[in-house]
Design brief:
Layout lengths: L1 H38 L4 H31 L7
Helix pairs in contact: 1-2
Length: 81
């Protein structure tokens, strides 16, 4: 039982790392979008729409990791109650 709880806590920590990865990816994408708009201001609309769709996908990944982490910590399906 203790090993299941320990591995669940470890897995929860790894799942939360998706939030850090999503933040880094969004920052990188935003920087590249700013560079692209600086180079071609007339394409601002299409660049911004692509950036927002990509940011939404990255944020969804972070939310999924957070939900998995919460489930492993508080509603652990591996423990028989």
């Amino acid at each position: 039982m203790d090993s299941v709880l320990a591995m669940s806590a470890l897995a929860s920590g790894i799942a939360v790392l998706t939030c850090a990865g999503a933040g880094i990816g969004q920052g990188f994408a935003t920087g590249k979008a700013a560079e692209a708009i600086a180079r071609q201001p007339e394409a601002k609309g299409s660049i911004m729409s692509t950036l927002l769709i990509g940011a939404a996908v990255a944020e969804t990944t972070a939310i999924y990791g957070f939900v998995i982490s919460i489930l492993l910590l508080f509603v652990n399906p591996l423990i028989n109650r």
